[in-house]
Amino acid sequence: MEIELLISDTNGTKAYLPAVEEHIEWSTERRGTPGKLSFKIVKDEILDLQEGAAVRMKVDGKPVFYGFVFAQKQDKDHLIEVTAYDQLRYLNNKDTYVYENKTASQLVQMIAADFSLNVGTIEDTEFVIASRVEDNTSLFDMIENALDLTLQNKKEMFVLYDDFGKLTLKNISSMYVGEPGAYLMIDEETGENFEYTSGIDSDTYNKVKLTYDNEDTGRREVYIAQDSEHMNQWGILQYYETMQKGENGQAKADALLKLYNSKTRKLRITNALGDTRVRAGSMVVVNLALGDVNISNFMLVEKVKHTFKTDEHLMDLTLRGGEFIA
User: Fold this and answer.
1) What is the DSSP annotation of 89-153?
2) Cβ distance 157 to 148 under 8 Å?
3) Burial of 325 (C-beta count, 10 Å sphere; 0-12/13-18/19+)
4) DSSP 3-state assignment of 175?
5) Which residues contact 199 (CB under 8 A, 6 or more apart)?
6) pLDDT tens track of the chain, all 326 residues?
7) 157: exposed, middle or buried (C-beta count within 10 Å: 0-12, 13-18, 19+)?
């Protein structure tokens, strides 16, 4: 395995190939978090490391990470611990947007243009949001809200990520790792250990209540969807939310009930054989026997941490799929 890690100076005119100590970690999450690269390098007289410097990593010639230094910490042994994030880090900025008749894709493109972010493939989310007010909200939350509305109305999930320096938005149907007959599989041989939990303590709701204050009529509209059988079994677990103008209340309530009216099952796999194609939002085949349930299907990667050493590449995965919620 050949790892190439380059750090530029702040002007972008020089690139350094630093001596890396210990290991390199690259982690991504599906929602609201930028990609992160962390590593330790040896301080020398040549290296001029400054915040904002570009960081690029390739593994076996394949592009893996492109981002910028946001933090560094030095110890008495002249080792510098570096934290770099991809450009999704800039979506932590807050702002106020009022928009009408835009898809989530168009919102992403508008925000990217306003904040000078490089854009790559932006797939069409199709669902048009009639109107939306986002006041003093992070750019991440604005985009995630639009993607949530798309999921509720179109039953399609999209993933926002940085693809080696380019803001990318894809349907999860475009995120399968591998090809038919050669998909990446995680099983008992490729994963050293797994942690499986189930419960109704979080992200499980059997009653959904949505309200909307209609300024035209002066009345509060209430929309409810519920599952009486699960309410008798688990007690009332209620999801409550106020809506904005232009949302279909009953359709949204029904969609949320369908999404949350089940046990929350979580699966985490540690020290699986690493594959740089796997990022948060990827779809991988999982084949495991977990006692009360057996898995032999595609699952969505909610989080992944890759650890690179000289001759070893392992990854920890948090997965969801079917009743599994990360």
Assistant:
1) GGGG-EEEEEEEEE-HHHHHHHHHHHTT--EEEE----PPEEEEEEEEEEHHHHHHHHHHHHHHH
2) no
3) buried
4) coil
5) 263, 264
6) 899 999 988 777 788 888 888 899 999 999 999 999 999 998 877 777 889 999 999 999 999 999 999 999 988 888 899 999 999 999 999 999 999 999 999 999 999 999 999 999 999 999 999 999 999 999 999 999 999 999 888 889 999 999 999 999 999 999 999 988 899 998 888 877 888 888 899 889 999 999 999 988 999 999 999 999 999 999 999 999 998 887 888 988 998 998 899 888 788 999 999 999 999 999 999 888 776 667 788 889 999 999 999 889 999 999 987 444 44
7) middle
Return the half-sphere exposure (C-beta side, CA atoms, 13 A cut-off) of residue 25: 14
Expressed in angstroms, the distance from the first to the final Cα of the chain is 31
Residues 37 and 20 sit within 8 Å (Cβ to Cβ): no
Structure tokens at 317: 């995965």
Tokens of 278: 């796997």
In our burial notation (b when 16+ CB lie closer than 10 A, e otherwise), range 175-194 reads: bbbeeeeeebebeeeebeeb
CA nearest to 133, candidates 109, 107, 114: 107
Quick one: tokens of 99? 């928009």
C-alpha R_g of the chain:
22
